[in-house]
Design the sequence.
């Protein structure tokens, strides 16, 4: 059945969005976790942002020293290096690190540079019992202690006890590994503020997930341009009218900003049909179900139990199909989870560049890194799926270049991302051509972008040109 074109409701204020979101759960057995229904909005006075933050080489270079070298940043999924001696390499704007799983399951991270002549110690990932320089043979164990100085008699100024590899701070959160270039940095939990408590209150955890998909995608735009496309729902009606909107109403896509929290914000969305002052017709709900089935669960098409009725709402059907699909695909039983956690979506922006999605409506994790120039970046995309009795192994990384589509590797989510990818280089081009030199941000729907730029400006302030 063709998707029915839906007229956009006019919103008078952010209160409408909050009420619309809450209305999606009227009449359901069991509400979402209480922390989900709590709406928090801070009025951030960052209505304009200089385009130079996206286009200036000078600002880009300052980000390297003033941002990336001073924040916690995500490296990888911890399941990628589960065994003692497993290594992961991380390179970002002058930071080059080797993360090594220790014998006791903890982690260490070392600067990827030989202390003799600076040779890169590791160029390939894998399992190893030592970190050895291929140029002259200097070697360290996986705890960073020096094991070998070739022809040590010729280096009277050196001794192995004083030649330990310099370390970065390293920690894990929700299965992800983070590093900070400063070994004495504030703990990751302090950097995250109230985020861990937020997740605990909601009952979320990635401990029962596995990495089912992992794609790295190069994009012709600044890393912030790419990231900000996933920090607001405002573009949904224009960019995703046939992919997201038919089963997830724009008017119920919420943005939450927490006063006092510098390093995270939250976005929410609900699937189904929004109920206005008058109940929506069964036909509208059926159109939402038909789209959901055709786009996300085509294997169930044609069944006779997909018909909306007074006894069976669109959300009833979507939830039932999601539970069944998870059981069929991964052997995971989701029947005891809240309906919100199964079919709706929640996504966080963790400053500066990480985006975990804790619910299964979109079981995603994103992060964004600069890629050598102000107008190029890399986006990493993961599917973190539930599993049954035995955890499946993590999949290997698939690397996509600028013009490679996402859809063949990410399915329906990839098709949504491809709709964004078409626009991102054009945004970068428009920013470079801007006459005003600023972008303008909405108060509510782009409040998370405002929050991000306020925090970014605290790390990398704009430099005002002085008159001659």
Sequence:
């Amino acid at each position: 059945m063709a998707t029915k074109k839906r007229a956009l409701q006019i919103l008078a204020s952010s209160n409408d969005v909050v009420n619309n979101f809450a209305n999606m759960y009227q009449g359901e057995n069991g509400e979402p976790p209480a922390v989900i229904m709590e709406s928090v909005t801070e009025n951030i006075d960052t209505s304009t942002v200089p385009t130079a933050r996206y286009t200036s080489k000078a600002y880009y270079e300052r980000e390297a020293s003033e941002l990336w070298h001073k924040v916690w940043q995500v490296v990888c999924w911890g399941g990628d290096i589960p065994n003692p001696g497993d290594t992961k390499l991380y390179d970002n704007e002058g930071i080059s690190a080797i993360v090594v799983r220790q014998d006791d399951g903890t982690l260490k991270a070392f600067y990827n540079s030989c202390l003799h002549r600076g040779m890169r110690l590791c160029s390939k990932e894998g399992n190893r019992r030592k970190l050895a320089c291929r140029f002259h043979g200097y070697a360290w164990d996986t705890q960073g202690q020096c094991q070998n100085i070739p022809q040590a008699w010729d280096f009277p100024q050196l001794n192995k006890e004083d030649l330990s590899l310099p370390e970065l701070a390293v920690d894990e959160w929700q299965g992800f590994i983070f590093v900070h270039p400063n070994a004495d940095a504030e703990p990751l939990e302090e950097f995250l503020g109230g985020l861990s408590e937020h997740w605990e209150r909601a009952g979320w955890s990635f401990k029962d997930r596995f990495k089912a998909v992992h794609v790295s995608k190069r994009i012709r735009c600044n890393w912030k341009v790419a990231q900000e496309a996933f920090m607001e729902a405002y573009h949904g009606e224009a960019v995703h009218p046939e992919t997201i909107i038919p089963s997830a109403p724009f008017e119920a896509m919420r943005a939450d900003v927490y006063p006092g929290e510098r390093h995270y914000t939250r976005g929410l969305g609900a699937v189904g049909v929004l109920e206005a002052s008058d109940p929506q017709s069964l036909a509208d709900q059926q159109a939402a179900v038909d789209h959901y089935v055709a786009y996300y669960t085509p294997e169930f098409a044609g069944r006779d139990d997909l018909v909306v009725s007074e006894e069976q709402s669109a959300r009833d059907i979507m939830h039932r199909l999601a539970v069944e699909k998870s059981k069929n695909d991964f052997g995971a039983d989701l029947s005891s989870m809240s309906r919100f956690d199964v079919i709706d979506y929640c996504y966080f922006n963790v400053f500066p560049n990480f985006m975990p999605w804790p619910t299964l409506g979109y079981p995603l994790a994103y992060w964004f890194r600069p890629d050598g120039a102000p107008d190029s970046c890399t986006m990493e995309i993961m599917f973190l799926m539930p599993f049954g009795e035995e955890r499946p192994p993590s999949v290997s990384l698939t690397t996509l270049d600028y013009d490679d589509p996402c859809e063949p590797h990410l399915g329906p989510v990839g098709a949504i991302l491809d709709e964004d990818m078409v626009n991102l280089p054009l945004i970068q081009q428009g920013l470079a051509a801007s006459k005003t030199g600023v972008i303008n941000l909405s108060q509510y729907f782009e409040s998370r972008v405002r929050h991000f730029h306020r925090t970014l400006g605290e790390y990398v302030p704009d430099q005002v040109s002085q008159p001659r």
